[in-house]
């Protein structure tokens, strides 16, 4: 027996999907969340509208969400000497060197972000096969290979998220928790879109973003009306 809600069936029915403005979509998600006993994540999928195979570098970037992600972020830092104390003071959850690398090789993965000082990359590099597929490998371009440990740890704890295009031209990220005030979720979503627009490759012509969908942990996806967003000049 299909026990999905009437609202779910209305949105997920066959044929063309309804297009939503951002605020309207957030209202709809809040209604769908209803009285569920856990705080669902607002997931965001951005589908790029060009041939990604022609790009030499993938679309990627990062942003500190204006209202955070609602997620408790566990930060692991590879550092030695005086940098160990700097990392701990800044709020890192785990700090170490080769002993930490060995622990990861044995299966320890109870962390959400990894930072390393430049001199520690010789220890971190062999962990590429473990950290890379999980999006955890420190990278100078994302600011996670740095001597400014206080700055990057503070950003990560505040809710900095990274986005990176997959092989099919999709970006997946989160925009907060459904318990957030509507305005805060909307501002997070708009900030993410602005960040994605800001790293548009100069060689891309025409539609940069084909579509955007929003969903909850347990909900159908809602399609955002991109033409409406551009027309109302909400983003650029």
Mean of residue pLDDT values: 88
Strand elements, count = 10
Portion in strands: 15-25%
Radius of gyration: 20 Å
Estimate the global geometry from the Cα principal axes: globular
Q: What is the domain tally? A: 2
Strand order of the largest sheet: 1-10-9-2-8
List low-pLDDT spans: 1-6
Fourth CATH level, the homologous superfamily of the largest domain: Ribosomal protein L1/L10, rRNA-binding domain
* CATH second-level architecture of the largest domain: 2-Layer Sandwich
| CATH fold-level assignment of the largest domain | Ribulose 1,5 Bisphosphate Carboxylase/Oxygenase
Give the class-level CATH name of the largest domain: Alpha Beta
Give an account of the 3D structure.
The protein has 236 residues and is an alpha/beta fold. The chain folds into 2 domains: 17-69 and 160-231, Ribulose 1,5 Bisphosphate Carboxylase/Oxygenase, CATH 3.30.190.20; 75-157, Ribosomal protein L1/L10, domain II (Rossmann fold), CATH 3.40.50.790. Helix content is 33%, strand content 21%. It contains 9 helices and 10 strands. The protein has helices at residues 6-12, 22-33, 82-90, 98-105, 121-124, 128-131, 149-158, 182-198, 226-231; strands at residues 19-20, 41-48, 60-64, 75-78, 94-96, 113-116, 160-164, 170-177, 209-215, 222-224. A 5-stranded mixed beta sheet has the order 1-10-9-2-8. Helix 3 (82-90) links the parallel strand 4 (75-78) and strand 5 (94-96). Helix 2 (22-33) crosses helix 8 and helix 3 runs parallel beside helix 7. The longest helix has 17 residues, at 182-198. It is globular and about 55 Å long. Mean pLDDT is 88; it is low at 1-6.
